Amino acid sequence: IMTGGGPGIMEAANRGAKDAGGISVACNIELPHEQHTNPYLDRYVDFKYFFVRKTLLIKYSYAFVICPGGFGTLDEFFEALTLIQTEKIEQFPVVVFGSEYHHHIIEHVRMMVEKKTISLKDPNLFLVTDSIDEAVEFIRTKTDGNFGLRLRPRVLLGETAMADRR
Protein backbone atom coordinates (compact mmCIF):
# COMPACT_ATOMS: atom_id res chain seq x y z
CA ILE A 1 0.00 0.00 0.00
CA MET A 2 1.32 3.39 -0.90
CA THR A 3 0.88 5.97 1.84
CA GLY A 4 1.07 9.71 1.31
CA GLY A 5 1.95 11.92 4.25
CA GLY A 6 4.91 13.36 6.06
CA PRO A 7 7.81 11.41 7.63
CA GLY A 8 5.85 10.62 10.82
CA ILE A 9 3.00 9.15 8.77
CA MET A 10 5.43 7.09 6.72
CA GLU A 11 7.09 5.70 9.85
CA ALA A 12 3.69 4.83 11.32
CA ALA A 13 2.71 3.01 8.11
CA ASN A 14 5.99 1.09 8.09
CA ARG A 15 5.58 0.17 11.75
CA GLY A 16 2.02 -0.99 11.13
CA ALA A 17 3.19 -3.25 8.31
CA LYS A 18 5.91 -4.72 10.51
CA ASP A 19 3.61 -5.16 13.52
CA ALA A 20 1.12 -7.01 11.30
CA GLY A 21 3.85 -9.39 10.11
CA GLY A 22 4.18 -7.86 6.66
CA ILE A 23 7.20 -6.67 4.77
CA SER A 24 7.77 -2.95 4.92
CA VAL A 25 9.30 -1.37 1.83
CA ALA A 26 9.93 2.36 1.38
CA CYS A 27 10.59 4.60 -1.59
CA ASN A 28 12.58 7.32 0.12
CA ILE A 29 13.15 10.74 -1.40
CA GLU A 30 16.50 12.38 -0.72
CA LEU A 31 15.74 15.69 0.98
CA PRO A 32 18.16 17.87 2.96
CA HIS A 33 16.04 18.30 6.10
CA GLU A 34 13.07 15.93 6.21
CA GLN A 35 12.82 12.48 4.78
CA HIS A 36 14.99 9.62 6.01
CA THR A 37 14.68 5.90 6.49
CA ASN A 38 13.20 4.62 9.73
CA PRO A 39 13.82 1.53 11.88
CA TYR A 40 10.64 -0.26 10.70
CA LEU A 41 11.79 -0.92 7.14
CA ASP A 42 12.75 -4.27 5.67
CA ARG A 43 13.85 -2.76 2.37
CA TYR A 44 14.14 0.68 0.87
CA VAL A 45 15.27 2.51 -2.23
CA ASP A 46 16.40 6.14 -2.34
CA PHE A 47 15.32 8.57 -5.07
CA LYS A 48 16.74 11.93 -6.00
CA TYR A 49 13.72 13.11 -8.00
CA PHE A 50 10.07 13.18 -6.97
CA PHE A 51 8.74 12.20 -10.41
CA VAL A 52 10.73 8.94 -10.42
CA ARG A 53 9.61 8.08 -6.89
CA LYS A 54 5.99 8.89 -7.68
CA THR A 55 5.98 6.81 -10.85
CA LEU A 56 7.40 3.76 -9.10
CA LEU A 57 5.16 4.16 -6.05
CA ILE A 58 2.12 4.10 -8.31
CA LYS A 59 3.43 1.29 -10.48
CA TYR A 60 4.02 -1.09 -7.55
CA SER A 61 1.09 -0.15 -5.32
CA TYR A 62 -2.29 -1.81 -5.00
CA ALA A 63 -3.88 0.82 -2.78
CA PHE A 64 -3.17 4.42 -1.86
CA VAL A 65 -3.86 6.00 1.52
CA ILE A 66 -3.64 9.79 1.70
CA CYS A 67 -2.90 11.12 5.17
CA PRO A 68 -2.39 14.74 6.19
CA GLY A 69 0.67 15.98 4.32
CA GLY A 70 1.96 18.69 2.05
CA PHE A 71 2.38 19.43 -1.63
CA GLY A 72 4.07 16.09 -2.36
CA THR A 73 1.19 14.15 -0.85
CA LEU A 74 -1.39 16.10 -2.87
CA ASP A 75 0.72 15.66 -6.01
CA GLU A 76 0.75 11.88 -5.49
CA PHE A 77 -3.01 11.87 -4.73
CA PHE A 78 -4.01 13.77 -7.87
CA GLU A 79 -1.53 11.86 -10.03
CA ALA A 80 -3.06 8.56 -8.90
CA LEU A 81 -6.60 9.85 -9.52
CA THR A 82 -5.65 11.17 -12.97
CA LEU A 83 -4.12 7.85 -13.97
CA ILE A 84 -7.16 5.93 -12.71
CA GLN A 85 -9.59 8.40 -14.33
CA THR A 86 -7.86 8.13 -17.70
CA GLU A 87 -7.53 4.32 -17.36
CA LYS A 88 -3.73 4.44 -17.58
CA ILE A 89 -3.62 2.27 -14.46
CA GLU A 90 -6.14 -0.09 -12.93
CA GLN A 91 -8.67 1.32 -10.54
CA PHE A 92 -7.01 0.58 -7.24
CA PRO A 93 -8.50 1.85 -3.98
CA VAL A 94 -7.64 5.39 -2.92
CA VAL A 95 -8.46 6.40 0.66
CA VAL A 96 -8.30 9.96 1.94
CA PHE A 97 -7.82 9.71 5.68
CA GLY A 98 -8.64 12.78 7.74
CA SER A 99 -11.85 14.43 6.56
CA GLU A 100 -11.33 17.64 8.54
CA TYR A 101 -7.77 18.15 7.29
CA HIS A 102 -8.77 17.46 3.67
CA HIS A 103 -12.13 19.30 3.81
CA HIS A 104 -11.09 22.11 1.44
CA ILE A 105 -9.57 19.70 -1.09
CA ILE A 106 -12.79 17.65 -1.14
CA GLU A 107 -14.81 20.87 -1.55
CA HIS A 108 -12.57 21.79 -4.48
CA VAL A 109 -13.26 18.41 -6.08
CA ARG A 110 -17.00 19.05 -5.69
CA MET A 111 -16.57 22.47 -7.32
CA MET A 112 -14.76 20.82 -10.24
CA VAL A 113 -17.81 18.58 -10.73
CA GLU A 114 -20.12 21.64 -10.61
CA LYS A 115 -17.93 23.44 -13.16
CA LYS A 116 -17.90 20.27 -15.29
CA THR A 117 -14.09 20.05 -15.34
CA ILE A 118 -14.36 16.46 -14.06
CA SER A 119 -17.21 13.99 -14.41
CA LEU A 120 -19.94 13.29 -11.89
CA LYS A 121 -18.45 9.88 -11.20
CA ASP A 122 -14.88 11.06 -10.55
CA PRO A 123 -15.41 11.79 -6.82
CA ASN A 124 -16.29 8.09 -6.53
CA LEU A 125 -12.68 7.20 -7.37
CA PHE A 126 -11.74 7.67 -3.71
CA LEU A 127 -13.12 7.23 -0.20
CA VAL A 128 -12.92 9.95 2.44
CA THR A 129 -13.00 8.56 5.97
CA ASP A 130 -11.80 8.98 9.54
CA SER A 131 -12.37 5.29 10.33
CA ILE A 132 -9.46 2.89 10.16
CA ASP A 133 -11.89 -0.03 9.95
CA GLU A 134 -13.75 1.56 7.04
CA ALA A 135 -10.47 2.27 5.23
CA VAL A 136 -9.23 -1.30 5.72
CA GLU A 137 -12.54 -2.78 4.57
CA PHE A 138 -12.62 -0.52 1.51
CA ILE A 139 -9.09 -1.56 0.55
CA ARG A 140 -9.80 -5.23 1.23
CA THR A 141 -13.01 -5.15 -0.83
CA LYS A 142 -11.41 -3.35 -3.77
CA THR A 143 -8.29 -5.58 -3.86
CA ASP A 144 -9.81 -8.95 -2.96
CA GLY A 145 -9.13 -11.24 -5.90
CA ASN A 146 -7.64 -8.41 -7.97
CA PHE A 147 -4.09 -7.71 -9.04
CA GLY A 148 -2.69 -11.20 -8.33
CA LEU A 149 -1.45 -10.06 -4.91
CA ARG A 150 1.27 -12.16 -3.27
CA LEU A 151 2.00 -12.45 0.43
CA ARG A 152 5.75 -11.96 0.00
CA PRO A 153 6.80 -9.44 -2.64
CA ARG A 154 9.93 -10.04 -4.63
CA VAL A 155 12.60 -7.40 -5.14
CA LEU A 156 11.11 -5.00 -7.67
CA LEU A 157 12.87 -1.68 -7.36
CA GLY A 158 16.44 -2.67 -6.58
CA GLU A 159 15.72 -1.81 -2.97
CA THR A 160 18.34 -2.29 -0.27
CA ALA A 161 17.71 -4.55 2.72
CA MET A 162 17.98 -2.66 6.01
CA ALA A 163 20.55 -5.25 7.18
CA ASP A 164 22.73 -4.30 4.17
CA ARG A 165 22.70 -0.63 5.24
CA ARG A 166 24.52 -1.26 8.50
Describe this structure in words.
- The longest helix is centred in the middle third of the chain and has 15 residues, at 71-85.
- The strands form 2 sheets. The chain has a 4-stranded parallel sheet, with helices on both faces.
- The protein has helices spanning 7-19, 50-59, 71-85, 103-114, 132-143, 162-165; strands at 2-4, 25-29, 43-47, 64-66, 94-97, 127-129, 160-161.
- Helices cover 40% and strands 15% of the residues.
- With 166 residues, it is α/β, with parallel strands linked by helices.
- The chain is globular.
- The model has no long low-confidence stretch (mean pLDDT 83).
- The protein starts with a strand and ends with a helix.
Blueprint (SSEs and pairs):
Elements: E1 2-4, H1 7-19, E2 25-29, E3 43-47, H2 50-59, E4 64-66, H3 71-85, E5 94-97, H4 103-114, E6 127-129, H5 132-143, E7 160-161, H6 162-165
Parallel strand pairs: 1-4, 2-3, 4-5, 5-6
Antiparallel strand pairs: 3-7
The gist of it:
This protein is an alpha/beta fold and 166 residues long.
Q: Number of DSSP helices?
A: 6
Total count of strands: 7
Tertiary shape? globular
- Taking pLDDT < 50 over at least 5 consecutive residues as the criterion, the unreliable ranges are none
In what order do the strands lie side by side in the largest sheet? 1-4-5-6
The chain-level structural class is: alpha/beta
Oligomer: single chain
* Whole-number mean pLDDT: 83
Largest beta-sheet characterization = 4 strands, parallel
- Report the span from N to C terminus: 26 Å
Following the backbone from N to C, one meets helices and strands in this order, namely EHEEHEHEHEHEH
